[in-house]
Amino acid sequence: MRLTSHFFLREWVSSPTAREKGIVNSPNAVQLERICWITVYILERIRLYYKKPVIITSGFRCPELNQAVGGTLNSAHRFPTELFTGAVDFQVSGVSLPDVFNFVAFDSRLPYDQVILERGKNRDNEKDNCIHYAIAAEPRGEALLGMTLWQGDYRQVFEPIP
Ligand SMILES: [Zn+2]
What we know:
Blueprint: H1 9-13, H2 16-21, H3 29-50, E1 54-58, H4 63-68, E2 85-92, H5 97-107, E3 114-119, E4 130-136, E5 142-147, E6 155-156
Parallel strand pairs: 3-5
Antiparallel strand pairs: 1-2, 2-4, 3-4, 5-6
The structure holds zinc ion.
C-alpha cells in the first residue's frame, strides 16, 4: 500500500524480528491514519528538504513486536489508540545523523514531542543509529541524545550539536 509518493506502508511495518518470530505487525485503522499523518507531515518534508531517500529503520510496532525488540512498555512506536502519539526511527541516505538531528530539531519547525539522536551499542556500526521522531497532541519539543531503546542516559540539548 502506497502512503505518499515516496513511502509505502511496508516500510513502516516490516521488521526482521517480526519475520523471524512470525509476528503479524499490522496497524488498525486509527494507527494507520496516524502513520499517514507522520508520513505526510514529517517524513515527506524531511525528504523534500534533503531530496534524498528517508529510510525507516523502525516504525510501527504491535505490542508483541515492541516487546520482542526490547522497546519500553509505553513506547510511542506502539501507536496506542487512546492518545495522539506515534514514533518513527529513520536515517537519511547519505546524510550524517547529527546533520539530520540539527535540521529536524532546530531548523525545520516541524512539531515534535521528542527528537532523539540514538546510537546503537555498536559504535562502529552506523546501521544501528537513527533519528527517533515522536509526535504528541501537546508536543514538548525535547531534543535528546541517547542510546537506542532507552538503554542509557538521555541528555537534552538546546542548540545544534557539532
Ligand atoms: Zn524509536
